Amino acid sequence: MKFKLIIILVLIFSHSLLCSDSNIPEWAKRYKSGKSIKNASDYYSGIGSSTISKQDADKMAREEFAQNIEVQVKNVQKEILKEKNGKVWESYVSVTEVVTDVNLKGIHIVERYRDPSSKTYYSLIKIQKDEYNQIVFEELKKELERKIYEHKIQEAEQKEGIRSTQEKFKLWLEKETNLLKQKVDEFKLKIKKKQIEKDLITKRKKEFQDFVDLKPPVKALTFYNAEVPVNNNILSAEIGISPFSIQSFEYIRKIWKFSLGSYSEFHDNNYYRQDISLRFQMLPNSGNFNKITIAIGAIAYDHSLNDKKFEEVDVKFTPCVAGNISLPTFMSSYISIYGEVRKYALAWKSLLFFKSLHDRLSLILELDYIPDKHYRNKYNDPVILQPAIRFKTTKDICTTIAYKNNEVFTLSLNVTF
């Protein structure tokens, strides 16, 4: 009885083995026995096995397939180079990269098997060599076309960059050339303008030579401007002629560029005001055509002396400034200015008949602003306009007739020595 049972078990086991072997794919049998797949010379293949999972078997199959393919890459490369006579391809396409890319993208597991007895997973990758080579070749052509297209784009961009650089340089050079030309033209125009101005000044100076060389007047009407006297001394006296009155006495002493002056003024024939002044000429009759003179100084003064005793005299001080400019083309005239705390004045003196009378006849118009009420006229006018006519009777003597302070006609005599 035992013997029969053993025979039955052996038969069942043998039958299961026969059935199991009959279900194993041929490629798996050959792999287990250490042989290649059938017709191996016509295929690229790779078989992987794993007791862990089918995914692991797939991975092993891909790795074996890649190893088998690697030895064929050089042969494919030689075929391609032969196809294109060895030109261009090496510069643009890496055959190994393309083959690897095809392996990763275009190759798939074609069959799987699991051995139930050993619980082993098997995976097969198989593709005909001609088919695979054609795939690789087509991919290489696509890659080549793409590389050539990219190269053409790069060449075009380089050419465009060179052309753009050349255009920019051309525009820059043109701009710089125009700018330089503009500067040269401006410089020429400036030189020409200066020459015209110089010629004009020379012409005008020649035309007004006598006036330009003339010594400017020392006095306006009521103030001395920035000029210093020609001689060392000036003595002046002024009277009222309508009505008759004593108006003022003045003495000026020149010492180099300094002028020291004493001025005494009378109201109603009474001693009313005393000024002591000292001025320094800073800018002595400078300029090529329009002569300019500037002087600064200081004045010691007091007023209402007829109502004060000697011990009541309160001397005050003020700085002053005076200036003078000649205007040969404007009626042969001079503009004089004067300023201090008591009075600000602007005077115009014209040698209207200079061509015929030289400097023997002058017309004077003086405008005064007097902020200090003690120095205003009896009408308390803060602003007064004073006209005058001056005659140069001899080289050193001048006589002036004026309407002063809006109240009196005066006659003054000015002597230099």
Give a structural overview.
The protein is of the alpha+beta class and 417 residues long. The protein folds into two domains: 30-154, Endonuclease I-creI; 215-416, Porin (Beta Barrel). Helix content is 39%, strand content 35%. It is built from eight helices and 15 strands. It has helices at residues 2-23, 26-32, 54-83, 89-92, 95-106, 129-207, 209-212, 354-357, and strands spanning 43-50, 111-115, 120-128, 233-242, 244-255, 258-267, 270-286, 292-302, 316-327, 333-339, 344-350, 361-369, 383-392, 397-404, 408-416. Helix 3 (54-83) packs antiparallel against helix 5. The longest helix is centred in the middle third of the chain and has 79 residues, at 129-207. The chain is rod-shaped and about 165 Å long. The model is unreliable at 15-19 and 88-92 (pLDDT under 50).
How many discrete domains? 2
C-alpha end-to-end distance: 180 Å
Question: Going across the major beta sheet, what is the strand order?
Answer: 4-5-6-7-8-9-10-11-12-13-14-15
| Architecture (CATH level 2) name of the largest domain | Beta Barrel
Could you give a quick summary of the protein structure above?
By secondary structure, this protein is of the alpha+beta class. It has helices at residues 2-23, 26-32, 54-83, 89-92, 95-106, 129-207, 209-212, 354-357, and strands spanning 43-50, 111-115, 120-128, 233-242, 244-255, 258-267, 270-286, 292-302, 316-327, 333-339, 344-350, 361-369, 383-392, 397-404, 408-416. It has a 12-stranded antiparallel beta barrel.
